[in-house]
Amino acid sequence: MAYLQPDKPEKVYLPAIRAAKEKGEKLVCLTAYDYPTARIVDEAGVDIILVGDSIGNVIHGYGNTIPVSLDEITSACIAVKRATERAMVIADLPYGTYHVNPDETVRNALRLMKYGGAEAVKLEGGRNRVDLVKRLVDEEIPVCAHIGLTPQSVYKMGGYRVQGRTADQAKRLIEDAQMLEEAGAFAIVLELVPREVAQLITEKVVISTIGIGAGAECDIQVLVLHDLVGMTFGRLPRFVRQYADIRQVMTEAIQAWSSDVKSGEYPNDNESYGLTADAKSELEAILNK
Ligand code: KIV
What we know:
Elements: H1 14-23, E1 27-31, H2 35-43, E2 48-51, H3 55-58, H4 70-83, E3 88-92, H5 102-114, E4 120-122, H6 130-138, E5 143-148, H7 154-157, H8 167-183, E6 187-191, H9 195-204, E7 208-212, E8 220-223, H10 225-228, H11 246-263, H12 277-288
Parallel strand pairs: 1-2, 1-8, 2-3, 3-4, 4-5, 5-6, 6-7, 7-8
The chain binds 3-methyl-2-oxobutanoic acid.
3-methyl-2-oxobutanoic acid binds next to strand 6.
């Protein structure tokens, strides 16, 4: 039986992620929430695109990820998937969509995959999510876990702080990572954990670690795209290196356009449409009748 090949051969699927770790090759992951940015990110060669619930901070201005809805992530995921040819697309399960019961979690994850086009889902939590991860994986849903700083726990944690700084906390994080691996997660985001702890986890698990504020030893690095290109407001976390100032570029472009409009420089004749000489004289004749 011949199977259709729906994607280009180099499309990133789980085996490519596993193979990269085996070969010691680093991969990169960025967030995207819409068609144009996803297209730029994909065409730039980024391996994984995360439709993160950071959409709440970056796009919707909620201030944290708690209010983000399944509809918001699904809609963003549809746009991202349309724009993406090569990168693997992972969608976040927003707060409240995997907290009630396993059946509802499966339904929500399936929605992200069937309607959103996600190729995997991500959820936050350690040992408390082990059964859920097993259940999702049993239903053919690839799962990326997320430990360390878990932004959906912001009210419980009382802020955003580095996690796993004491030996006991670090040991607990390592155990969590091993339990999530055992449960079937294909990768684990390590957010804001000391680099030594991230390195230990990366060495102890066969699955890939995806670091953000977790040092250089993780298998994959992830950043919020808007932080990387300077499209956020306020102070950036210490782990972000800003590679461009798109906010400044946009501000200058908008101000230049505004001033051209006000001075009559824009639009010029090439930037508008004119009548043909015949139509012009015909119109004049009609108007002068
Ligand atoms: O939502 C997000 O962007 C994330 C990353 C910070 C890993 O979860």
